[in-house]
Amino acid sequence: MKRIDNLLNSIGIRDQLTIIKIKYGLEIIRSELSKILFLLIIFVFLNKSIEYVFALSILSPIRCFSGGLHLKTNIGCFLFSLLIYTLIIIALPNIPLPIYIYYLLLIISFLIILVLSPVYTKKRPIQTKERYLFLKRRTVLISIVCFLIIVSISIIGYIEVFIIGCWVMVVQASQLIIAKKINWKEALT
Fold it and tell me: Which residues form a coiled coil (predicted)?
């Protein structure tokens, strides 16, 4: 961390609050990249790396702006992420459902994400109306793009990948519902 302090000082950043924010951002990036790498290694061993990369590429941009459930420790976050991706990639796709049910789940989940987003947390409160609107617009835009990608995949015939995309949306919508309930309960206490 001393090297980061020296680097920031050398480029003229001396404000302590700015330095703290930059260090926090770098720590989050390091933590997320290591989590993504460890999960990739696990899914490579499970012969599901392509499915993992697809699920990650849909879930990450939506979750970045819409929010969701957050755990307090890095290991808790890693284990929860492993559970989520295992559900999305391995467990849930093994539930035999008619294709029209997947489309229905996709549409309902898409609408839930649009309505409930963004979800705040104690650690990352949304402090201004402008920030809320920014996150809302980004969530809507990214969700529409992801929705269209998932539907396009089904149209060209990659049904297994389409099903994973549907479960990504269902799991994210479920996280938002749970996170909203937690926030509502915390507001009452």
Answer: none
Tokens standing for residue 181: 């309930």
- Type of residue numbered 154: S
Place of tokens 């947390």: 121
Q: Are 48 and 89 in contact (CB under 8 A)?
A: yes
For residue range 28-70, list pLDDT tens digits in order: 788 789 999 999 999 999 999 999 999 999 999 999 888 888 7
Contact 146, 95 (CB under 8 A): no
Helix (H) or strand (E) holding 171, with range, is: helix 159-188
Contact indicator for 168, 154 with CB cutoff of 8 Å: no
Indicate whether this model's pTM tops 0.90. Answer: no
φ/ψ of 19, rounded to 5, equals -65, -45
